[in-house]
């Protein structure tokens, strides 16, 4: 499939890491997308259970070009700042994903306190 995309010079390919094995909320299948990375010649975007450390390691090992952090972004509206400062993340609650309540869910996760983390 990916080799076919190369024929059309598709700019990027977004893949979901299969959750084959999750141990303590960490991805334990680091090479599962490696064949796709090797075959696809342009930007590979990946999502699926990666935290800051695992994403940075996979980038350094050239297993992907970019990572998506959907659930982490929902629970941490200031995720780039938290990653930059390497601070703890809010835990997300899957039970309130995609509900229609305008107060609970997408808008009620706390930001870092400016005085605490500069």
TrEMBL record:
SUPFAM superfamilies from the xrefs? FMN-linked oxidoreductases (SSF51395)
One GO molecular-function entry: oxidoreductase activity
User: This protein's superkingdom?
Assistant: Eukaryota
InterPro entries documented for this protein? Aldolase_TIM, OxRdtase_FMN_N, Oye-like
Cofactor(s) in the UniProt record? FMN
**Pfam families recorded for this chain?**
Oxidored_FMN
UniProt keywords, alphabetically: Flavoprotein, FMN, NADP
Q: Where is the NADH:flavin oxidoreductase/NADH oxidase N-terminal domain?
A: 9-89
Q: Which Gene3D superfamilies match?
A: Aldolase class I (3.20.20.70)
**Entry-linked PANTHER family:** NADH OXIDOREDUCTASE-RELATED, NADPH DEHYDROGENASE 2-RELATED
Q: Give the UniProt family note.
A: Belongs to the NADH:flavin oxidoreductase/NADH oxidase family.
- Protein name, UniProt field: 12-oxophytodienoate reductase
């Amino acid at each position: 499939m990916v080799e076919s995309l190369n024929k059309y010079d598709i700019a990027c390919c977004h893949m979901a890491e299969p959750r084959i094995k999750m141990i303590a909320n960490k991805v334990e299948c680091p090479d599962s997308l490696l064949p796709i990375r090797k075959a696809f010649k342009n930007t590979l975007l990946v999502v699926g259970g990666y935290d800051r450390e695992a994403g940075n390691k996979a980038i350094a090992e050239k297993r992907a070009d970019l990572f998506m952090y959907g659930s982490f972004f929902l629970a941490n509206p200031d995720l780039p700042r938290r990653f930059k400062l390497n601070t703890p993340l809010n835990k997300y609650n899957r039970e309130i994903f995609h509900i229609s309540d305008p107060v609970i869910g997408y808008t009620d996760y706390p930001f870092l306190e400016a005085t605490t983390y500069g």
